[in-house]
């Protein structure tokens, strides 16, 4: 390791000991050799899950845009944040600045509300324990109101967030599940409020939920 990294053996040894102490490496008691630890395996699984979800959503984004003419985004939960992993601009004159890697507020985005409604147990309580940013006068920041809104999202199976971060902008999102029925991410339409009202049309909801279901099937959802 010292030779490959171009550092001294004592320094390499200090790095290895630090990795062992934090669970990223382990030392074999019989041979004194080192190998990767369980935390590296966990990180690898998290990365694989993230990109598996993105790969499942990507093929359904184009048909969704063609059916609606609107921009389409996909998100996953990574390192405790709702993160956009795919973005496909729509056919309208206005382009949106959301790009892959953008992190969205849980309480103020359609993607985030989907995560709170269908994501890991305890996530909602964790988010509501922190201060909630009021991006506009329409942003819901009261914890009880957010909790009620999340219950509505869970019941209806989709979420919107009109004017919550920027006046005149809305998104319509639906959840993506894997073969275990666990939430893995979301797919959403993004557009001006004139195209996606706070109460979207039944047709828009059907398009988004159909795309989410198609992505979920690619992850094995619904397969007996």
Folded structure, characterized:
With 224 residues, this protein is of the alpha+beta class. The chain contains 7 helices and 8 strands. Helix content is 42%, strand content 20%. It folds into 2 domains: 2-36, no CATH class; 49-218, Beta-Lactamase (2-Layer Sandwich), CATH 3.30.450.
Provide the fold topology.
Elements lengths: L1 H4 L3 H13 L3 E3 L6 E3 L1 H31 L2 E8 L2 E8 L14 E2 L5 H9 L4 H6 L14 H14 L2 E2 L8 E9 L5 E10 L9 H17 L6
Antiparallel strand pairs: 1-2, 3-4, 3-8, 4-5, 6-7, 7-8
Helix pairs in contact: 3-7, 4-6
List keywords for this structure.
7 helices, 2 domains, Beta-Lactamase, two-stranded antiparallel ribbon, 224 residues, six-stranded antiparallel sheet, alpha+beta, 8 strands, elongated, 42% helix
Quick recap of the structure?
The protein is α+β, with helices and mostly antiparallel strands and 224 residues long. The chain folds into 2 domains: 35 residues, no CATH class; 170 residues, GAF domain (Beta-Lactamase), CATH 3.30.450.40. It has 7 helices and 8 strands, in the order H-H-E-E-H-E-E-E-H-H-H-E-E-E-H.
